[in-house]
Amino acid sequence: MFAASLRKIRSRTKRSGKTMLLSNGGSFAGLLVNAVAAFIFVLWLWLLVITASDLFRRRDMSGAGKFLWVVLLVGLPYVGTFAYILSEGAGMAERKTAQTEEMRDAVRQFVGFSTVDELLKLDRLKAQNVISNEEYLMLRSRLVG
After folding, report:
1. Where are the strands (E) in 4-121, listed by range?
2. C-alpha–C-alpha distance, residues 96 and 102, integer Å
3. What angle do CA 73, 76, 79 make, to 5 degrees?
4. Residue 71 near residue 92, CB atoms below 8 Å
5. Angle (CA) 76 78 82, round 5°
6. pTM
7. Torsions phi, psi for 57 (to 5 deg)
8. How far apart are CA 3 and CA 9, in angstroms?
9. How far is it, in rounded angstroms, from Cα 86 to Cα 38?
10. Backbone angles phi, psi at 14, to 5 degrees
11. Residue 25: what are its φ and ψ, rounded to 5°?
């Protein structure tokens, strides 16, 4: 009984002498290739969005320079994205770090965080022997420097 049903399934999945692994007639290798291609496309799309957002947030580039980069990104999207990342990658990281610092300072100002308050808390913790002198110096250097 089981052998007969197995033969029926095998006969349905055979086309031109090749055994198909998927019900639609495709192979597992084809499925993997499609999955990798979709992953690479999503990765490239993410890089394109990151590149475009960095390009439009730049303050050190003129409008003509931004226009030329946009033409390259639209005309040759893969080449343009990778060219921008390779030529401006370090600047992208610096701008992202500066933006993060600005946002952190804005949140601290909104919440009411100040360096002086934190230094007073550290002094209090050190006086109560909750933290060691090494920890105090390390945390103080983070706040001050």
Report:
1. 14-15, 18-19
2. 10
3. 85
4. no
5. 115
6. 0.56
7. -90, -10
8. 10
9. 23
10. -90, 130
11. 100, 0
Q: Are 31 and 22 in contact (CB under 8 A)?
A: yes
- Give the H/E segment covering residue 23: none
Which pair of structure tokens corresponds to residue 58?
């730049």
Residue 14 DSSP symbol: E
Q: What is the pLDDT along the chain (145 residues), one digit of tens a residue?
A: 556 655 555 555 555 555 556 667 778 888 899 999 999 999 999 999 999 999 998 888 999 999 999 999 999 988 999 999 999 888 999 999 999 999 988 887 888 777 888 888 889 999 998 888 899 899 888 888 6
Q: How far apart are CA 63 and CA 24, in angstroms?
A: 51
Amino acid at 105: D
At 135, which amino acid appears?
E
Residue carrying structure tokens 């290739």: 33
Q: Are 20 and 11 in contact (CB under 8 A)?
A: no
Q: Rounded distance, CA 47 to CA 53, Å?
A: 10
Q: For residue 81, count CB atoms less than 10 angstroms from its CB and return exposed for 0-12, middle for 13-18, buried for 19 or more.
A: buried
DSSP 8-state assignment for residue 17: T
β-strand partners of 14:
19
